[in-house]
Amino acid sequence: MSSIRGGLEQSRERLIALVLLLQRAWTDEKPLTQEEIVRDLKIDEYPVSSKGPRKIRAYEGNEGAVRQKFERDKARIRELGFDIETVVLSDDTVGYRIDPSSGYAPVIHFDENEQRVVQLALRFCGFGSSGVFSVFNDTPASDGGLEFSAYYTPVVRALRLRRALSFHYQSSTNKLRVVEPLIIDVFNGASYLVARVRGTNEIKGYRISRITSMPMVLGDGYEVDEEALSIAKAWRAEFQKSPSPIDVVVTTNQNYADLLVRQYPRAVPARKKEGKVEVGISFENSRAALRFVLEAAERVRLQGPKSLKVELLEWLDGVNKSSKPFPDDFKFSGPTSNDVLGETLQLLHAVYMAEDGLRISELAARFSLSPEHVRIVMDRLSSLEPLAEASDGSSRFPARVIKDCDDWDNEDTDDSIYRADYVNERDEPSPFMWRDLFELNIALREASRVYDNPSIYSAIQKIERVASSFVQVESPSNESLLSQVQQAVADREIIKIEYTPGVAEESTTRSIEPREIKVLNGHTYVRAYCTTRAGWRTFRVDRINAVVAKSPATEERPVDTAKNWLTQVGDEGEEVVVVVEPGQRYLFEPLPSSQWLVLDDGRHAVKFRIIDESFLDHLMLLAGPGAVVATKKFAKAGHELARRIASQL
């Protein structure tokens, strides 16, 4: 439960009042100067010192302090994706206003069936607590399978408007980029903006998580022809201008060969002596081929080509051997989370979506807040009159919140209802920011692989009618048994499976009762009660070799105590710090709850938790030269694994 502090609540009311005030300034075409805002913007005193709240100025103090507070508030508003426009007025003073369409998408009305499939989709794949889950679902969000970023808001808007974007981007250096967005492509759960470099014909991909400043939507428009769009759709994270295909041959056992054939549909297997299988696979370039061999680790023996063997030996020799900094003085920033403004808007949007309003208890349950916290936030929204003493009709805010109380004499304890009220259709507020449309679109597309429902596609059509066809999802092709697993969830069945764990060569037989399916980092996982191990376990669907039997589930199972079972690796285990070159970030960015720091020498440090040391061994094997574990206990991670693989060559 969140604690309530006077300073925090005054900051919350000041921010939300400023957002709504500057949005109204756009609608009324009356930009407001800083002098007008500082003079007239009023908020309720907190804590309340008398029976009724006393109105006080939102910005008080000397001129320098007021200016600093105002600039900080503008920065926090921009961090959520709102575009605060600066206007030079006729008397040469500067006015401010917010274009509501910079943050909010147009209103979308989902019918009852569409709302139901959206609820399912967000449980299957979404941002989790940072997204719109609680706007549609009446339970608190757990972990999400998509990377949350406020940067999606201007990116999606720029794609819709066909306007250029500028942002700072971290590759080998952190520098400003100006691009013409073409599409957002999602590979293995990671989102890339594929765009044309402004002033050129070069098309490049920019990983959203490496954008380091809020993208700015520029006034410059651009045209896109079918050729440029087709190149953008064909772009891949390992794209090369001149692909050099390479044929790789490995030997392995029958079980792992079957797994490879499912993962690589064009793989060609051939049986050999002593139960071994030779598998041939073609890759677009040597980098992709090397990555394949490293991911397989000891489960395959590389037969050829010779050039790849040489490259692999050099790689193995550099595993976890770079220079080590001292991590004692590292100061990591925590994972991204919503601030008070974002939290308030989420509560407000949930009320917008509820035609009959929502009670305090319902909002508290949805957002994992105390009733006291909800009451304070919503009461301040319902009493919000930022320019109450002005005569310009400021009460016409579209965010007007009405409070209905069952027992006004005991208002402080009443389970009151809050509902949205607006003057006319023009004022109907949208509950969706542009980034929410990205989340909904991806979640629905992922859910369509599991749920065959026409309402999924009609919901996607409504989203893309507003935002255009702005996204492409690369779904895995090796989850052929996903529908059978989902059917077992729906029918509450026990299924017997042949399963190959993460780094094992052989499969084992498990009997499991699947309960929930989610997507993370491009892979589908199922949470199930394993009767073989007598406990709750998480299984990756593409590692299920076969479903060999099924039967009705009749027994009661113990409660699953893992709330965030999908990303449990981020909350438990031992803490590890790894230092990597900027180009190696992509391996560590998908780790749940990872924290980052840029070092003075240009390298990046990442902190995360591990439960199994073998996981770190394989991670350092994939990272190779240029990455090093700074945590003393794990200084030799990956060394023995690299030695064993090298001895087989």
Low-confidence stretches: 1-5, 388-396
> What percentage of amino acids are in beta strands?
15-25%
Distance between the termini: 56 Å
Mean pLDDT across all residues, rounded?
86
According to DSSP, the number of beta strands is 27
Helix content: 25-40%
Please characterize this protein's 3D structure.
This protein is of the alpha+beta class. The protein has five domains: 6-103 and 336-427, no CATH class; 150-239, SH3 type barrels, CATH 2.30.30; 249-317, no CATH class; 327-334 and 568-647, no CATH class; 482-563, Roll (SH3 type barrels), CATH 2.30.30. It is built from 20 helices and 27 strands. Strands 6, 7, 8, 9, 10 and 18 form a six-stranded mixed sheet that branches. A hairpin with a 3-residue loop joins strand 6 and strand 7. Helix 5 (112-124) crosses helix 15 (434-447). The longest helix is centred in the first third of the chain and has 22 residues, at 6-27. The N and C termini lie far apart (56 Å).
Secondary structure: elements and pairs:
Layout: H1 6-27, E1 32-33, H2 34-40, E2 42-44, E3 55-57, H3 63-78, E4 84-88, E5 94-98, H4 100-103, H5 112-124, H6 133-136, H7 152-161, E6 163-170, E7 174-187, E8 190-197, E9 203-207, E10 216-221, H8 226-234, E11 246-253, H9 254-263, E12 268-271, E13 276-283, H10 286-296, E14 301-304, H11 306-317, H12 340-353, E15 358-359, H13 360-367, H14 371-382, E16 401-404, E17 417-420, H15 434-447, H16 454-467, E18 471-474, H17 482-491, E19 493-499, E20 508-520, E21 523-530, E22 535-540, E23 544-552, E24 574-580, H18 585-588, E25 595-598, E26 604-610, H19 613-623, E27 628-629, H20 639-647
Parallel strand pairs: 7-18
Antiparallel strand pairs: 1-5, 2-3, 4-5, 6-7, 6-10, 7-8, 8-9, 11-13, 11-14, 12-13, 15-17, 16-17, 19-20, 19-23, 20-21, 21-22, 24-26, 24-27, 25-26
Helix pairs in contact: 1-12, 1-14, 5-15, 5-16, 7-15, 11-20, 13-14, 15-16
